Automatic annotation (TrEMBL):
Signal peptide: none annotated. Pfam families: 2OG-FeII_Oxy (PF03171), OGFOD2-like (PF25238). Residues 239-332 form the Fe2OG dioxygenase domain. GO terms for molecular function: iron ion binding; L-ascorbic acid binding; procollagen-lysine 5-dioxygenase activity. Keywords: Dioxygenase, Iron, Metal-binding, Oxidoreductase, Signal. InterPro entries: Collagen_mod_GT25 (IPR050757), IPNS-like_FE2OG_OXY (IPR044861), Oxoglu/Fe-dep_dioxygenase_dom (IPR005123), Pro_4_hyd_alph (IPR006620). GO terms for cellular component: endoplasmic reticulum. It comes from Leptotrombidium deliense. This is Procollagen-lysine:2-oxoglutarate 5-dioxygenase 3-like protein. The lineage of its organism: Eukaryota, Metazoa, Ecdysozoa, Arthropoda, Chelicerata. The keyword Nucleotide-binding does not apply.
Amino acid sequence: MLIMAVRSAIYSQSIKREEKPGVWNVPHISDVYLIQGSLLRQGLTAKQNEVNVQIKTDSSDEKQRRNYYPSFVLTENPSLDSDMAFSQSLRDNGVFLFLTNLFEFGHLVNSESFVTHHKHNDLYEIYSNQMDWEKRYIHENYSKNLDTDTVIEQPCPDVHWFPVVSETFCKHIIEELENFGKWSDGSNSDPRLAGGYENVPTRDIHMNQVGFEQQWLYFLREYIRPVQEKIYTGYFHDPPRSLMNFVVRYHPNEQPSLRPHHDSSTYTINIALNRPKIDYEGGGCRFIRYNCSVIDLRVGWSLIHPGRLTHYHEGLPVTKGVRYIFISFVDP
Ligand SMILES: *[C@@H]1O[C@H](CO)[C@@H](O)[C@H](O)[C@H]1NC(C)=O
Ligand SMILES: *[C@@H]1O[C@H](CO)[C@@H](O)[C@H](O)[C@H]1NC(C)=O
């Protein structure tokens, strides 16, 4: 069995399975991941890592060629990378290279930028391995939010509510932050801020403290922005900006609640990371102008609401256990 992948952007555009299923004759294949040994064994004379693959073309051996079992001769060619040499040799010998996306064999994980010093390294793979990241960390019903016939829930006036991240995401981000452990002290003095002063302090950890800021901004752009555009018709801001991306920890003995305040945002994202009535009691968000509270929060669901003027709000007291929420002040 021969499995090959094409690296060129031009080709990768045409291989998106859902767009254009088919079989293509291509000039170059960049990687060979698995080759049945019997194909190569005969006449294999590999000398260095960089090898040139040539096909012994022997017209008297037509039968073997028709059976598509050419014998390979590997010789050195320092002027070409092995993939170029391989493709060129095949072309020069009249062997066509084909690519098909009619079958799904799986995919490769991009390990080039993988780091291992976090508790949950996979959380950080949002750009390099987005497909796997989505599967693990995006809520299974996320895409329904974007269906034209889905009406996004609105528990309070202009406060919407939608599923966005998986339970695994919530568990992993909590564990990542508890492992890091440097929760702020909840006082007004905050050296992490430009002015050193926080008017409405919480016990929290900012994403830039755990190296997750860029990943989170990418998340906002990829997964929050499309829902925002659906909810607030006519407001476009791409990419969304956010200087404040943080997880708040509410605890009866530390900080159980948060006094009424506005956010420094155009809109705020507030994702519930754990379960009311199980992991904690009390809690919730109350919008004072409407005397409306969202209390039965759902894990992995985000609230989205305007930050200023109309949505003056408070964090309701947690009476038992620990409550975690993930907050972003988008477009400050
Ligand atoms: C997704 O939606 C289906 C249908 O409403 C529901 O049964 C399922 O529990 C939802 N998945 C999650 C993880 O909430
Ligand atoms: C606000 O709502 C609560 C509970 O829904 C209700 O008991 C209270 O009377 C309301 N307050 C005002 C000022 O309407």
